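Tutorial handout. Part one gives the primary structure; part two gives the three-dimensional structure as tokens.
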Amino acid sequence: MTGELIADFATPGSNIYDLGCSTCNTFRAAAHFIAPGITVRFIGIDSSPEMLDKATAKLKAEKFPFDFELRQADLNEGMNFENASVVILTLTLQFVRPLNRERLVRSVYNGLNDNGCLILVEKVLGEDTLFNRLFIQHYYEMKRRNGYSEMEIVQKREALENVLIPYRLQENKQLLRDAGFTKFDTFFKWHNFSGMIALK
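Part two.
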């Protein structure tokens, strides 16, 4: 879904940013949908040099068909964007300290071209504690079905405690409004995960 939406808004001569790009699977997904020959530049940002090394090797090995640049940076320290048609935040904003999130989303808005979009995918809190418990329960059940042990599930949960700080869906919507976005919608929702697209 993210790859399709990137292709919908990628314009010739513009930049496509992925914040928290990891090994650039999102870039690879988008490449399947963007018409060959369009001159776009992919810019990946991540705090982990190891992830960026893996991403570089992967993109080169697969002969990624678009120009790309990978940068190491901490999103908590702020970021400037230039000539952006698309900015992607996939399961990344939840790791940015809450104090810094509004500044980051506002800088995304300021760096987007007219009709550029922000794609925001996040883990979210349920609007009610009952739903929240059910969503988390079903998420862990899905992990078990996919071969995760109880120990792995517990270790992952403990590793993310006080590091991953999710908002409610409505709080993310308010974050977009406060940054200047007036057009946005939810394109995906599954238990405690949601995907939103916002248009400048």
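Part three, for discussion. Helices lie at 2-9, 25-31, 49-61, 98-111, 129-145, 150-160, 169-179. The mean pLDDT is 91.
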